[in-house]
Design goal:
This protein is of the alpha+beta class. A 5-stranded mixed β-sheet has the order 50-56-55-52-53, with no helix packed on it. It is flat.
Length: 933
């Protein structure tokens, strides 16, 4: 079936029902009889020059003129009619092609039988005046509409997935961007973008002997091509034909180099270095017994070549006298760092840069014959970031552009003598960079995933891949070559030729649409592509969008921004969907955009989204609720007033009765009041007496604590955080100087408040006696003696007293630290790591057994920080959930303050404690000593 519209009528061509017209106004269908045959088959109908043309099964073309059918080409079966602005084109079932100009009656035939004998089923004219012909078996033909010459034939190629999927074409369509849509018989729909054909592709289909291309050289309008397995090929640009040079026996040509005298040198695998004369096709093998695998060639002075080999090191070859010097790796500091050389570069001094297979980059001074290797671990800017150097390009500033096998591009600034790295993090296509060339202000690289162009000026990268017409995404080392206007890039499926100046990104004004909207996981019912505003239910706060950029010429990247939710554009890259969850009620606008490549512009689309609040959050609900509340309050007020009036009468009667009773009770209350006041005065006096006693006890306890000034004089870089739970405490800190040693400790006695303070006096005294009376200076011995004294003191009591003390005791003399502890450990923080020494699991006091306390010895380092502490800090309840601070939190806190001074540490630790405790009660005494070495 076919149809067209003209003068308010739709003309419908059928297979067996002839030609019909449908009138919009009357909704009537009328059959138009052609040559008295109502059941004639109509193959195609079109309007040209205000006349109706029909291709029929009778043969030829019928056209309607003055309500009469006229007939021409009666011996030819026409399949398609295609009018253009000035011409009418006709395609026949046997490959005939005719055209007629608007102002002419003559019908002209164009001979294209050699391209297709099976018929033309599609004709279309694009924006560039190219005529596209779809044939029934001959593929797609491209014709210049002015010259009427076929310029290209596109057919199915099994080796090329980007070729036409089927040679039988049923229909054609050209879109507004010039893209050609091709409908095939069994091959689906094909899309061809004539504007995206900047990369010319050559491979074995065109005559190349092998698809794996390793090297190039352009000379005298010919392109020499080194292959991996197919020897040396030549592409003659005059004939566009390939040929293979038979005299070159090597099948693998790694590199091709033309020296200043015009001689062509071939680096091969298996045949080493070959000297080739293109005039007589003669070939001579050089350095035959030295190397059979040459990877790179570069010229030194007028008589010498530098050769990089696989396994034979660096070779200096004198062309004039046929002599050579070989540089191999030795134990000498000045030798080359590896015998496998992948790439060479030369600076303005004629010195060499050498890229190796596994030892990075070296600089070779050709005057002194000294090698200077560079590191390859990327630890600083004086090293490459990869050990395998695939390619070296030395630019006009003597800067290096280095292709690595995993480290991307390494740029060496010769003035600053430092490297910068350009990797996939900077949008490089791949970090395996096979080859590099520089053209003007751009660096072109071939990689393991396409070709990249790096703008030195803008620091931006543009990538090209298989979808852009490249031979494949994988390229080969050494196979990136350029002259003034052309780049040649070889890979595993032939090679590309392109003009880098023409590879500019063409930004099409193509729309991006939403193809799918899912609300709460279900597809939105209204076709989302045809609306720009949607209103959702308040519960519809889970939205999923899918986008499509209507450009099919290559890979597309996307971005979007939900105004009212996203602060910045969300870069989706090649992902064309996004989900938003838990969106609050409000007004949103979704901006979305796709692009082929190039920079983003303002050509984005917008979808406006409204998610209303639930009814109980609307202003009308608030107003109604406020009115209802006011009515209820007013009703309550009226009822209350009535009750008050009734109760007032009752109260007046009761008041009189109660007045008399109150007068009697007042006398009794006055007496009770005087008694209570007397008891209060006695209680206050007792309380003041107790407070005075506790305050005096605090003065006593403070007297036994070493003054902070004394503590600082012996341990200047220290702090003490001392926070008793009550006025007096069971925790105390202690300091003594004995025999050149500074002894200090943090102790925690049983209990807190007055009982704890009393125990602390006994324990403090035991420590003082152990040092002063018994002249002990070793922490373990001091604790042993203190335990004896405490037990002896408490044995004097009539009752069994098991109170005692937990303690961490240290001795410092120079950089020597001794430590012993009862339950309380020693922490030393060194370089951000806590070194913990555990205490003996026994107190200073009565216990089920009394083992000697262990003395631990340490060599302190500068910057070490020592911490002694009781358990009050880590056992304090607090935080959002009222839990203990715990040892882990205390450890992390101390590690976090190592960059602070000791006084800053004290302040910070105290602030953290107060914030953690909040409004909760302090449960125990807190004592922390910090000392920095």
């Amino acid at each position: 079936m076919c149809f067209t519209e003209h003068n308010n009528l739709i003309y419908i061509g059928t297979k067996r029902g002839g030609l019909n017209s449908y009138n919009h106004s009357t909704e009537e269908i009328t059959q138009l009889i052609i040559e008295n045959t109502p059941s004639i088959q109509i193959r195609d109908i079109e309007i040209f020059n205000n006349k109706l043309y029909a291709a029929t099964s009778i043969g030829g073309i019928h056209f309607l003129k003055n309500d009469k059918w006229l007939h021409f080409l009666d011996s030819t079966h026409i399949q398609i009619i295609k009018p253009t602005t000035k011409e009418l084109w006709l395609g026949g079932l046997n490959g005939e092609l005719f055209f007629k100009k608007l102002d002419k009656t003559e019908l002209i035939e164009i001979d294209i039988i050699k391209y297709s004998k099976t018929g033309i089923w599609g004709i279309n004219l694009d924006n560039a005046e190219n005529l596209w012909l779809g044939t029934f078996g001959g593929g797609l033909l491209k014709m210049n509409a002015k010259s009427k010459k076929v310029t290209h034939q596109f057919v199915t190629q099994k080796e090329n997935v980007n070729s036409l999927s089927h040679d039988v074409i049923l229909t054609l369509f050209t879109d507004k961007d010039g893209g050609v849509w091709v409908g095939t018989l069994g091959g689906g729909v094909n899309y061809f973008d004539p504007n995206n054909q900047k990369f010319k592709h050559y491979n074995s289909i065109n005559g190349l002997s092998n698809n794996v291309v390793m090297s190039f050289l352009e000379e005298n309008n010919k392109l020499y091509i080194g292959t991996y397995g197919g020897g040396l090929n030549i592409l003659d640009f005059n004939t566009n034909q390939f040929s293979t040079i038979k005299t070159v026996q090597a099948k693998i040509i790694r590199c091709i180099y033309k020296d200043n005298s015009g001689v062509i040198w071939l680096g091969t695998h298996g045949n080493g270095l070959l000297k080739y004369n293109p005039k007589n096709n003669s070939v001579k093998q050089v350095l035959k017994n030295i190397t059979d695998d040459v990877w790179s060639i570069i010229e030194g002075d007028s008589n010498e070549l530098w050769i990089g080999t696989w396994g034979a090191g660096l070779i200096n070859y004198n062309k004039k006298n046929n002599e050579f010097i070989q540089f191999l790796k030795t134990d000498s500091k000045n030798s080359i760092n590896e015998n496998i050389i992948l790439s060479l570069g030369k600076n303005s001094k004629n010195d060499l840069w050498i890229g190796t297979y596994g030892s990075g980059l070296s600089y070779f001074n050709v005057i002194t014959n000294k090698f200077n290797p560079y590191g390859f671990e990327g630890k600083n800017k004086q090293q490459t970031n990869n050990k395998k150097i695939r390619s070296i390009y030395v630019d006009e500033n003597d800067d290096l552009w280095i292709g690595t096998d995993g480290g991307g591009i390494n740029h060496f600034n010769s003035k600053k003598s430092e490297f910068n790295y350009i990797t996939t993090d900077d949008k490089l296509p791949n970090n395996v960079v096979y080859d590099i060339v520089k053209i003007k202000n751009n660096i072109w690289v071939s990689t393991n995933y396409g070709i990249g162009r790096y703008s030195i000026e803008n620091k931006t990268i543009t990538s090209f891949d298989y979808d852009d017409g490249l031979q494949n995404n994988e390229f080969n080392q050494g196979a990136l070559y350029h002259n003034a206007e052309t780049i040649y890039a070889g890979g595993i499926n032939g090679f590309n030729i392109f003009n880098p100046q023409e590879i500019e990104i063409e930004t099409k004004k193509t729309n991006t649409i939403i193809t799918s909207l899912k609300v709460m996981g279900n597809e939105y019912k209204t076709p989302i592509s045809y609306t720009d505003t949607i209103n959702l239910h308040y519960s519809s706060n889970f939205l999923g969008f899918q986008f499509s950029h209507l450009d099919y010429s290559g890979k597309i990247i996307y971005r979007c921004k939900l105004e009212g939710f996203d602060k910045e554009w969300v870069q989706l890259n090649e992902r064309n969907f996004i989900n938003y969850t838990n969106l609050p009620a409000g007004e949103y606008s979704l901006k979305f955009q796709g692009k082929r490549s190039g920079n983003w512009d303002n050509n984005f689309s917008t979808l406006f989204i409204t998610i209303p609040p639930p009814f109980w959050k609307t202003i009308w609900f608030y107003i109604l609720a406020a009115i209802l509340i006011l009515l209820l309050l007013y009703s309550f007020y009226i009822l209350k007033q009535k009750n008050l009036l009734r109760k007032n009468v009752e109260l007046e009667n009761q008041v009189k009765k109660r007045t008399q009773e109150i007068e009697q009770k007042n006398k009794s209350l006055e007496e009770q009041k005087r008694e209570v006041e007397t008891q209060k005065e006695l209680a206050e006096a007792k309380h003041n007496e107790i407070q005075a006693s506790i305050s005096y006890a605090k003065r006593i306890q403070s007297a036994i604590l070493p003054p902070l000034k004394v503590f600082k004089s012996h341990l200047p870089n220290s702090f003490i955080l001392y926070k008793p739970k009550a006025i007096v405490a069971g925790d105390f800190y202690w300091l003594e100087q004995q025999g050149g040693r500074t002894l200090f400790a943090a102790a925690d006695c049983t209990g807190h408040g007055v009982p704890g303070a009393m125990v602390s006096v006994v324990c403090n005294n035991a420590l003082n006696r152990s040092v002063r009376e018994y002249q002990l200076t070793t922490p373990g011995e001091i604790l042993n003696k203190s335990r004896e004294i405490v037990i002896e003191e408490f044995e004097k009591a009539d009752e069994d007293v098991k109170d005692g003390m937990d303690i961490a005791l240290c001795s410092i003399e120079g950089n020597k630290l001794l430590y012993a502890g009862a339950h309380n450990p020693l922490w030393i923080i060194r370089n951000g790591v806590v070194l913990e020494t555990k205490a003996n699991k026994q107190p200073i006091g009565q216990f089920r057994r009394s083992d000697p306390f262990t003395t631990h010895a340490f060599d302190l380092q500068k910057g070490d920080t020592i911490y002694l502490f009781s358990d009050g800090y880590k056992d304090q309840f607090g935080g959002e959930k009222g839990k203990k601070f715990k040892t882990k939190g205390f450890r992390e806190l101390l590690i976090s303050v190592q960059n602070k001074t000791m006084e800053e540490q004290k302040t910070f630790i105290n602030d953290v404690f107060e914030k953690w405790k909040g409004d909760l009660e302090q449960i125990d005494d807190v004592c922390i000593i910090g000392v920095r070495i």
